[in-house]
Write the structure tokens for this entry.
Amino acid sequence: MSDTVNSSEAEEKTPYVKEFPLREAHHLVRDLMTPNPWIYWTDFLFHITLGWAAFITALLSPLFSLWQLGSFVVAVLALYRSAIFVHELAHLKKGTFQNFRLIWNILSGIPFMIPSFTYDGVHNDHHKPDVYGTTADGEYLPFATRKPAEIVIYVLLSFLIPIALAARFVLLTPISYLIPPLRRIVWERASSLTIDPTYRRAPDAIRNDLNWQRQELGAFVFGASVIAMVWFGVLPVSVLVLWYLIAVTIFILNSLRTLAAHAYRNPGDRKMTLPEQYLDSINIPGNILVTPLWAPVGLRYHATHHLFMSMPYHNLGRAQRRLVNELTDNSQYIKTIRSGLWPALKQIWRESSEVTAKASQQQNS
């Protein structure tokens, strides 16, 4: 099986979409759409407990000791998996999993300055056929049609994101209430987890998460309290340093995963149908031991997720196997499969380089 989809295949996307067996695919997985609360609770509570225990161990261990380095790695991977549950929260049916949402925000979302309201609504738009891949999609940039340098810059921005998030909630939250006109700007420009820095939420956008202001206040209180305790010597400065280093590593991992999640070929000037969204997305079943570490909570089946966005993460693997093995014609389905993170990243880098080289040749001719 080929690990990549070449440019000619991308150009021939239209006939593939017309023949995609979407109805049959839905029929094969219709019994996999119900989330299991026990799996959610067990998975999240285990990893968030492991993550914070590893954080404390790394904090108290001798500098650069094996204990500290090992604990750092465990903390990054466990807290990363815990944080990624924000993706599930965005898809869970409105009004369900309220206690889970509350506990997730208290133990993961607020400590890392990513309360669930920052992803709610924004990510749902990413799945709308009339938004996906267009300039209105905050989670899509046509990396494959731009210079490779933009891919590098996107990853390097991970070093600034934790600082920007802390500033947004610790500084801008109270200031925006003192300066009402700033409140609208903060909502539009600084309240969304996206990959497009120019993205703006509509001023009248529906706030799907009714508790968003409480989450915002919680993030402010938590961040301000930790900074105050460090300032007055109650907590060591190393708490903030370790938090920053873990957050940066998590954001770097997630940026690489994000680059491998889509083909990013649509320049944003046209709408894409649901099958087209799938064919622009990527599945990386990979190694059962390694792949879930960098693409946790079902995100290694990202193309399958775009076919069935309401399917809980714990059923995506079963859906993947059924569709590969039971579709009457699975030729279109397997086109988005990559063997690993590196092949997926090489593909988008190669396409970006080819576009840049072609543009350079045209300018010189």
Confidence is low (pLDDT under 50) at residues 1-18. The chain has one domain: 7-315.
